[in-house]
Amino acid sequence: MRNHSIIGWLLATPLTLVLLVFLVAPILMIVTVSFWGATEWSIYPAFQFDNYEFLLGSNVTYRVFFNTFKYALITWAFTLLIGFTVAYYLAFHIRSQTWQIALFLLCTIPFLTSNIIRMISWIPFLGRNGIANSTLMSMGVIDEPLEWLLFSDFSVILAFVHLYTLFMVVPIFNTMMRIDKSLIEAAADNGATGWQTQWHVIVPLTKPGIMIGTIFVVALVMGDFITVRFMSGSQSANVGRMIQNDIALLQYPSASATAVILLITVLLLIGTLLRFVDIRKEL
Amino acid sequence: MRKQLDLELISLTKRYGSTVAVDAISYHFKVGTYACLLGPSGCGKSSTLRMIAGHETVSDGSVTLGARDISHLPPAKRGTAMMFQNYALFPHLNVRDNVAFSLKMQGKDQAERHKRAHEMLELVDMVNLADRLPAQLSGGQQQRAALARALITKPDVLLLDEPLSALDPFLRIRMRAELKKLQRELGITFIHVTHGQDEALALADEIVVMNNAIIEQAGATRAVFDAPKTAFVARFLGSHNVIAMPEGTLAVRSDALHIKQAEGAKLPGTITNIEYQGTHVALTATIPGEQEVTAILSDKEFFENPKNLGEAIGLDWEAEAAHALAG
Q1: What distance in Å separates the CA atoms of residue B174 and residue B180, rounded to the nearest whole number?
Q2: Statement to judge: residues B310 and B222 lie in one domain
């Protein structure tokens, strides 16, 4: 009996240590620093609420948070739409498993290059004299270059959707593969049309996958700063950019406070989502 | 006067690429028949059922119900309903919503859906479980829910794909009695696919024995069992000995074999196994040509004149008990 409990503790130790060192300790550190004070040239340990007061009292914070939510929401909508369609096609329309795996791997090919390279490669495409504009102009669709293609919310969201759609495809595909195909026949037998089957059978059964994908995409977009910086040409801000700015100015206490607020926001959001869908059986 | 709703298969064919799963079979199911499609796996019985249901396209030939050619109609427009092998209940819906699913698809309002689902659940004795999810039901209860869901569409023909194979043996016997009772009450045609001959014999008014994509023999259950036409049918239905005699191959039922002295009997044999089975005794003997036959004797008959292993015996049967087999 005793022996067993010792072995149990030993088995749990490595993971516990990893989590303590790489998850709990950094968060504690950030929370601690968020209460510190700062001057133009120094930071000093303290326990004061100045950082939070300044943060929560500033109009800019709310505008930036609003912008962050806006990016997350629009990106979520597009990744969900594209991700669901791609996963549905792979899971239900491709009959042979070999093809399913081959096409699925094809989806992951973009991930062989770095995020930043994939993002930057949009710039020559979308730029004022880029491929998109020159093609549209030579086709006579437009007379002068579209200004909003690059360094705009459009380009930020385009890059987000491009970068993160796969995070939607994978969990949805995974859930769809577990749906018993005879359920679709049963729906047809009961007179459901294609869309009715989709809405009343496939979507409800795919919910856990949609939820996992949603958590991925929302967490990634909410925490991102580099995409917003590159694709908006530093003209738009989100929370990640705000933290990055503080860090660049060595304002660590203020950056920490912002990070804590962002963390709480994301956790609340995910907590709310999880109340609606039980994803345990997917894990 | 009933509507004339006979189901007819006319040269029905299913090809998958170059393989033929169902080869031009024709059969006429009279309305109100309990019919079993019986055969080993891969014989084409499931493909046949799925073509009738509309879940498999018809490669050639046609299926007619009443006067209508239903070969190319969508499943819900055929007047058939299917009960799937694993029941295919929607896991996210409770029993009531599963049963009422087709009504919801037709856009019926909730009050009517619940009322009619309730009637169906009464029919299968599941009213008290209406709020359960499929995962919270036993196999037998899932089957009843699936039955109710299939019957709520008021089908003219109910198609059952190995409905009892997921159940344990005890429940299987109980559920098959319920199926039979339900069919009698509703008076509609049931077409039941199975590979179990005992199930087919117990349930069916008519059996259709299939092998290698064709119908080997079909007709009233007793007529088929009493007079198998091919060695395959005789072996598959069981309780038959297939004996190669100089004048041709015969099928003789195990319980039609008599044991007597070796002299004057139709066949000499040597006992290789004696199995006591309670009400009767199964006696296996080898006969010339290294064939094995099984005779079933009542326990009384056997123990009045017991035999031992290795004993030489004679096997005899009435002339009308033997059926000449083709092939």
Answers
A1: 10
A2: no
Reported ipTM: the value is 0.83
Residue B2's pLDDT band (cuts 50, 70, 90): very low
Domain covering A60-282, topology? MetI-like fold (1.10.3720)
* Contact present, B98 and B91 (Cβ < 8 Å): no
Q: How many other β-carbons are positioned within 10 Å of the β-carbon of residue A176?
A: 18
Chain A: closest CA distance from residue B47 (Å)? 14
Q: Give the pLDDT confidence of A154-191 residue by residue, as tens digits.
A: 999 999 999 999 999 999 999 999 999 999 999 999 99
| CA separation for the pair B312, B285 (Å, rounded) | 9
- Cβ pair B85:A182 closer than 8 A: yes
Q: What is the residue range of B135's domain?
A: 7-226
Residue B1 confidence class, pLDDT cut points 50, 70, 90: very low
Burial of A22 (0-12, 13-18, 19+ CB in 10 A): exposed
Q: Do B105 and A190 touch (CB under 8 A)?
A: yes
CA–CA separation, B91 and B149 (whole Å)? 14
CB contact under 8 A, B55 and A200: no
A217 CA: distance to closest CA in chain B (Å)? 25
